[in-house]
Write a structure and sequence with these properties.
The complex is a heterodimer.
Chain A lengths: L3 H8 L5 H22 L26
Chain B lengths: L5 H9 L5 H19 L2 E4 L1 H16 L11 E5 L26 H8 L3 E6 L11 E2 L3 E2 L15 H9 L4 E6 L5 H7 L2 E4 L19 E6 L2 H11 L28 E5 L9 H16 L3 E5 L4 H20 L11 H12 L2 H24 L2 E5 L12 E4 L2 E4 H6 L3 H6 L3 E6 L6 E6 L5 H13 L1
Parallel strand pairs in B: 2-3, 2-6, 9-10, 9-11
Antiparallel strand pairs in B: 1-3, 4-5, 6-8, 7-8, 7-14, 11-15, 12-13, 14-15
Classes of the chains: A mainly alpha, B alpha/beta.
């Protein structure tokens, strides 16, 4: 599990320690939930950074 | 007058039974009466509204009819840039920001002859769902002012549901149009990604933001979408796909394959919501819909991916202002701080996973024409409430509220919330459809309203 207080110090974030402690549980939960999802990504799959159609969204108009 | 549909108000305008100025004056009267209770507006543009209304009347008298929105009072969430009119994003950072340009949405609505009554209130930076805004005060739910209106487009939802406006524009990154629609008792449409231009909107996020209307009926949402939809060469994400006619004409659910998820969307739902949803499904079947039980790809995963993308992009966007920590509300600052800790690799992988989910959901659309779900699993929480308990499980109000809605943003598909019959606080039915199926989604929503 990431030590977010140490990470904040290392990266020089100007976030007070008590506020880092306040968000650490949410970050840890997200880290825990996201980690297993990455395992299933096909190796050559590119990111969908911009949802420009038609390649990403698919469909041929009017949802058909 | 205030609760007429756009079509009904338009018919009275064209019959000479009412003028655009009278519609605007009535809207202003209701805004003045409701503001002490609701706090739905950041700026009321009274002089501009009366000027635009006078112009609308003059044009109609000369035979120039700009269409169904001509002379119709509306509001813009205070993220849409309006030249010369303060656009705050509900924030202290942009408290005195006066744009030197108009958003594409405002341009199109002005071209359609609609009358701008004001800029509606929102969650700070549209980042959250309570609309308990530390800089402009809490926005209140017209159905019960002790409750939140939902957000982030809470002022738009409250004003439309209260009858102050015929429609209002919102933005939706993880449910921010559909949540206030569900909690306040009106209609909220999040169109397909790229269907409505985002140019000139102060963004929360690059990948998940969508612009759409809040109205009092699906038919009205179609009329507004007619004015908004279309390619905008100045918006890289704008679709070149031909625009449909979104006017709702015949409405029927007969033969429509309505997908009913057998997983996820029935988990931890408040009893009132579950009962209203079951009734809606019963009525849909009675109206001839073919109910199709469907196991959907786990939206829990999509929600996780949505949060990684949103936290990363919002923090990147707001980075230039993060040294002004005292100028942010505590809830928004906590989210912006979280985004700074995420790894770039996680962000990229979240964007790759989005493609995986889009491919999986493409198979869903082969099995069903649309998906019915409750919009939110809970009723509008009280102002200041941070946690909700359902089935013995405590859940953060924001995460519970958005649980059923984030998928449509990650997938980019259209989704609409319509009010269900309720004896208490409003409850929403969400209808999702395939990409660019707004015409059909609106027709089905209209049929579900009357079934």
């Amino acid at each position: 599990m990431t030590d977010f207080a140490a990470l904040a110090r290392a990266r020089g974030f100007d976030i007070p320690e008590d506020q880092v402690a306040g968000i650490a549980p949410s970050l840890s939960a997200l880290e825990r939930d996201f980690a297993p999802l990455k395992a299933g990504i096909p190796h050559c799959l590119e990111p969908a950074v911009i949802l420009s159609e038609p390649a990403v969204l698919g469909g041929t108009g009017d949802g058909k | 007058m205030s609760f007429l549909s756009i079509s009904q108000a338009g018919a009275k305008l064209r019959a000479g039974e009412v003028s655009a100025v009278e519609l605007a004056q009535e809207s202003l009267r209701r805004i003045r009466a409701d503001e002490p209770r609701l706090n739905a507006f950041i700026t009321v543009t009274e002089d501009l509204a009366l000027e635009q209304a006078r112009q609308a009347d003059e044009e109609l008298s000369k035979g120039l009819d700009r269409g169904p929105l001509h002379g119709i009072p509306y509001g813009l969430k205070d993220v849409f840039a309006t030249k010369g009119i303060r656009t705050t994003c509900g924030s202290k950072i942009f408290f005195n920001h006066v744009p030197d340009h108009d958003s594409a949405v405002y341009e199109k609505l002005r071209e359609a002859g609609a009358v701008l009554m004001g800029k509606t209130g929102l969650q700070e930076f549209a980042y959250g769902i309570t609309c308990n805004n530390p800089h402009f005060g809490p926005i209140r739910n017209p159905a019960d002012p002790t409750c939140i209106p939902g957000g982030s487009s809470g002022g738009s939802g409250a004003a439309v549901a209260a009858g102050s406006l015929f429609f209002a524009m919102g933005s939706d990154t993880g449910g921010s149009i559909r949540i206030p629609a569900a909690y306040c008792g009106c209609v909220g449409l999040k169109p397909t990604s790229g269907r409505v231009s985002r140019r000139g909107v102060l963004p929360l996020d690059f990948s998940l933001d969508h612009m759409g209307p809040l109205t009092r009926s699906a038919a009205d949402a179609g009329l507004v979408l007619n004015a908004l939809a279309g390619h905008d060469a100045a918006d890289d994400t704008s679709s070149r796909r031909p625009v449909d006619d979104y006017t709702v004409t015949g409405t029927s659910l007969a033969g429509v394959r309505v997908g009913l998820p057998t997983n996820f969307y029935g988990d931890r739902v408040a009893p009132e919501v579950a009962a209203a949803f079951a009734d809606a499904v019963f009525r849909a079947r009675a109206a001839g819909a073919i109910l199709v039980p469907i196991m959907v790809p786990d939206p829990t995963e999509i929600n996780v991916v949505s949060r990684v993308i949103l936290l990363s992009e919002a923090s990147a966007l707001m980075e230039p202002y993060l040294h002004r920590r005292g100028d942010f509300g505590a809830d928004v600052l906590a989210l912006l701080d979280q985004g700074r800790f995420l790894a770039a690799t996680d962000y990229i992988n979240a964007q790759r996973l989005r493609r995986v989910y889009q491919a999986q959901w493409a198979e869903i659309w082969a099995q069903a024409d649309c998906i019915f779900t409750p919009t939110a699993p809970i009723l509008a929480p009280k102002i200041g409430q941070t946690e909700v308990v359902i089935d013995g499980v405590a859940e953060d109000v924001r995460l519970a509220t958005t649980r059923f809605m984030r998928a449509a943003n990650v997938l980019g598909v259209p989704a609409i919330s319509i009010p269900l019959p309720s004896n208490g606080l409003p409850i929403g039915l969400q209808i999702m459809g395939p990409p660019f199926a707004e015409r059909r989604v609106l027709a089905w929503a209209s049929a579900a309203e009357v079934s």
